[in-house]
Amino acid sequence: MADPEKLFADPEKLFKVDVVTPNGMIYSHRGSIVDVRAIDGERSILYNHVPLLTPLVISEVKVKRSREMNSRIDHIAISGGYIEFSDNVATIIADSAERARNIDVSRAQAAKERAEKRLKEAREKHDERTEKRAAVALRRALNRISVYNTRGH
Questions:
Q1: By C-alpha distance, which of 135, 79, 141, 134 is closest to 110?
Q2: DSSP string, 68-109
Q3: C-alpha–C-alpha distance, residues 69 and 142, integer Å
């Protein structure tokens, strides 16, 4: 007998996309394509993609909401994490994530400047541990600014 879930498969080939952080659900919609940056390169996930679990880097996640040409694309800044895809559900688990529309760009700019200052000071003191932490903070701030700027004002 056919699986009842398969009988009512989405004719538009949309699947569920969730972005979760320790603070809860940041994003939950249906999409036709999810573009992510894994540690080994770019990935595009479509309906019925093979099951997958892979680590992600600090980057932008793009979710195309439908198959139409002028479909809305949601932009989300993530601080790394993982994507798991199975049974047409994409779940992204990240330490932090922010939808482009919710990014406070002035706060992100201030974080960028603080991180640049800490990075410079750590390099002068040859403090590798602080330098690595500042470099990550800088990448996160730059990612938030970039995602904010690409959201299509």
A1: 141
A2: STT--EEEEEEEEEEEEEETTEEEEE-S-EEEGGG--HHHHH
A3: 29
Domain spanning 4-101 has what CATH number? 2.60.15.10
Same fold: 4-101 with 103-150: no
| Residue-range domain boundaries for the chain | 4-101, 103-150
Tell me the two tokens of residue 87: 């049974």
Question: What architecture is domain 103-150?
Answer: Up-down Bundle (1.20)
Q: How far is CA 53 from CA 47, 67, 131, 139, in A?
A: 16, 24, 30, 23
Task: Quickly count: other Cβ atoms within 10 Å of residue 98's Cβ.
Answer: 23
Query: What is the dihedral angle through the alpha carbons of 128, 129, 131, 134, rounded to the nearest 10 degrees?
Result: 170
For residue 9, the SS3 value is coil
Q: Are 151 and 118 in contact (CB under 8 A)?
A: no
| pTM for the whole structure | 0.86
pLDDT tens, residue by residue, 1-33: 444 444 455 567 899 999 999 999 999 999 999
